[in-house]
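User: My advisor, Dr. K., asked me to get a structural model of this assembly before our group meeting. I'm new to this, so sorry if the format is off. These are the inputs:
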Amino acid sequence: MKTPDDLRARVTADLRPVRPLLRPWQRGLIIAPAAALVWAAAPAVLGVRSDIDALGPLLAWGGSVVQLAIALALIVAAFREAIPAEHVSRSSARLLLASGILVTVALAIATNAVSPEPEARVETFGSWLFCWEGAVLAGAPLVLLLAVLLARGLPMRPGLAGALAGMGSGAAVDGGWRLYCNYSNPTHVLASHGGAVLALAAVGLVLGVAVGRLRQSSRNVPLRLGKRR
Amino acid sequence: MAELPADEEHLRTLMVRYQAGDGDAFDALYARLGPSLRRYLLALARDTQRADDLLQDTFLQIHRSRRTYNPARPVRPWAFAVARHMWLMDLRTRRRKAPPHLDLEAVPDLAVPAAADGLARDDALRRALAQVPADRAEALLLHHVWGFDFEEIGKMLGIRAGAARVRASRAMSALRGLLK
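Assistant: The format is fine. Below is the predicted structure of the whole assembly, which you can bring to the meeting.
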């Protein structure tokens, strides 16, 4: 089978050497410092919550480290989705996406059980918005960076790849945010922090779909070499 | 790096040369991969003209995405996954509402799965395969016709290796039932 002339011409026009992308886990390792930065931003800049000693190191720091680990697993899965024949199975993708939000829920419940809030504190829209907005803004650069990196590959299911990346960003940012936020009330944590995680996953999904559409529309003038009937 | 079969090793060498900017390696890849990719696309698209168009689109996409090939991995599953992606993109573009369906009547030179060899003659087999649900028939074909293992098929289709095995097995059971 001989290469059609039109195809050969298109290939020859852009035959520069390329360096293969690193393996997904290697790309995950490279992005890990950025994820860790997002994770550490809130406690480093805004300080740690006042009841951190009451929570103990395992629940406070251990829980957040688990969230960071889940975030990295989600990001590696997103990178896998961007490589042909490296797909994550649907069940694994569902499990990973669920774990991104379920760990937030589990840590909220555990935190409230160990260090409940004083009854006098009332959840307000302002406190909800502050945490939601802060977490989304802190995670947004990571989602954008991941979208750019995903676009360098060939995401087979771009929406899923984006959602995995977004959920990973959300898990990373929430891991740090819960170390800063003084609220233990599950209503606040789930609505505001959990809402931010879901919002970042949604942003990732939208960006992933946009990457896929962009790629689809940039198929240039398709080669149509077969004989027409 | 896992040891690859001789043919895959040759494809890998070609792919590495191609990634390094060797246009002749692209021609050699086209010659070696083109026929099997065309048959696969024909099985998916059930239209000779579309399969030919998709084959060119696939190689153009292979060219654009050549950096996504990892030299430690076999080439064929990667190339087939790109072909499948192009077919799915084409489906979306055409906004077909009906689910993808394998019309094996349209596949003129499809090899008979070895495991089904004793079941019936080619024509009857093709007709029967056309009645098997598309996702199961695809897993069966990828395994028995193109020789991918279930781990590779799982990664190509985004399912677990066990699920790919079950799909192929159910397709085979369905075939046996249809050919009785």
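One thing worth pointing out at the meeting: Residues 158 and 208 of chain A are 5 Å apart (CA to CA).

User: Perfect, thanks a lot.
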